[in-house]
Amino acid sequence: MRIIVAGGDGFCGWPTALHLSQKGHDVSIIDNMVRRKMDEELASNSLTPIASLEERVNKWQELTGQVMRTYEGDLQDFEFLKKVLEQEQPEAFVHFAEQRSAPYSMIDREHAVYTQVNNVVGTLNVLYGIKDIVPDCHLIKLGTMGEYGTPNIPIEEGYIEIEHKGRKDRLPFPKQPGSYYHLSKVHDSHNIMFACRVWGIRATDLNQGIVYGLSTKETQLDPVLANRLDYDSVFGTALNRFIIQAATEHDLTVYGTGGQTRGFLNIEDTVRCIEIAAENPAEPGEFRVFNQFTEEFSVLELAQMVQKVAAEEGVTVGIGHLENPRIEKEEHFYEAVNTNLLELGLKPHLLTNDVIREILKTVLVHKDRVIKENILPTVKWK
Ligand code: NAD
Ligand code: USQ
Asked: Which residues form the NAD-dependent epimerase/dehydratase domain (predicted)?
């Protein structure tokens, strides 16, 4: 299958591009490198040293003989996108290319506007590009579990059957997102759903939970193929951050009580979920929603697991309950359905002490690259 991976230089996109290429798909990558520029803006870095995209794809070709074409450009630039679609004629378009940090979107007005314009306009361009140039192409769009928020009822996969005043309908599940970033994903979902209904586009919205780990079988083939790993308070995410904090003997930064519960998945499962979605496309006109996570944990549970594994490895770390910089529920009901991907054959890599230990070992190799000033949160919701 001819597949474009937009955002293919990023944390989820790079291992996904490698995995799809390894499976024999004809992969090309779009990325505007903005994530690397954000490291400069935030005076931050990836914990792992990362090669340039050019070095990465050259190494992949050298090791496997597989060619991945790369296009450096912005999805907000429709003329650029049009040319790539005309040239590649993709059968699937995997869309990771968005600003994905909630704290980044909450820095100030400029960062909120950037996040929403980048994400909403980029996705609208992709929708128009598919409609005009490759109408049969399957859009596989990365959404987020955070679109739903934390309602006091179980979260369904995209839709809920509602009975109201004696009538019934299957309607989009209510959305209560917790940041301007998460809101941008809700806006995208609405735009994609509308495009499916009106133009007959086929789309899968993958409401992904928080991804942990960094390595996949393919990224481990050579240090030049290594994936990025974020640990700073803006781009680092809960479990990965805790493991890196443990490696540097920093107290684990649980915000508030730590009762915040979310869906999580291993990066190994991210790449497999995209493969499953690509190989089982949505029907023309269908707006399909999958909840892409494998397990639910509270933030405090994760911190306790990391603390225990670190202790077994001879590292003592405390759990610091910081004042929560976000406005969010800290104690709440959480139960979400995730059966669609399992029914299509996903075999989850579950979180065990050994999985944490493996990530910790990789992290320990690079721990001297941690910029300690970037660990504590600085962005507040109000
Ligand atoms: P990332 O920031 O590492 O990667 C995103 C990539 O997209 C970057 O390489 C960036 O340069 C590129 N990009 C951004 N805007 C672009 C534009 N306008 N044009 C071209 N390229 C652009 O993020 P990630 O962690 O790999 O996340 C990928 C996607 O998955 C995002 O949409 C994110 O919302 C979603 N997601 C991520 C997680 C997670 O835990 N990392 C969880 C759920 C959902
Ligand atoms: N948290 C802590 N301590 C930390 C970091 C986070 O307690 O050091 C808490 C947060 O307050 C929050 C939870 O952990 O309650 C998750 O925060 P996070 O930064 O790990 O994840 P989030 O901001 O939700 O965003 C990440 C990705 C985003 C993706 C989302 C999936 O950056 O791209 O959409 O996870 S989800 O959470 O399912 O919406």
From this structure: 3-291
Read off the CATH number of the domain in which 179 is found.
Answer: 3.40.50.720
Ligand number nearest to the C-alpha of 146: 2
DSSP for 179-214? SHHHHHHHHHHHHHHHHHHHH--EEEEEEE-EEE--
Q: Is the ipTM reported for this complex over the cut 0.90? A: yes
Active-site residue identified among 16, 48, 115, 144:
144
Q: Could you tell me the residue range of the domain that residue 267 belongs to?
A: 2-374
Number of domains in the chain: 1
pTM over 0.95: yes
Q: Which residues contact 39 (CB under 8 A, 6 or more apart)?
A: 45, 46
Site to substitute for ligand 2 among 12, 144, 211, 380, most atoms within 8 A of C-beta: 144
pLDDT in tens, 47-71: 999 999 999 999 999 999 999 999 9
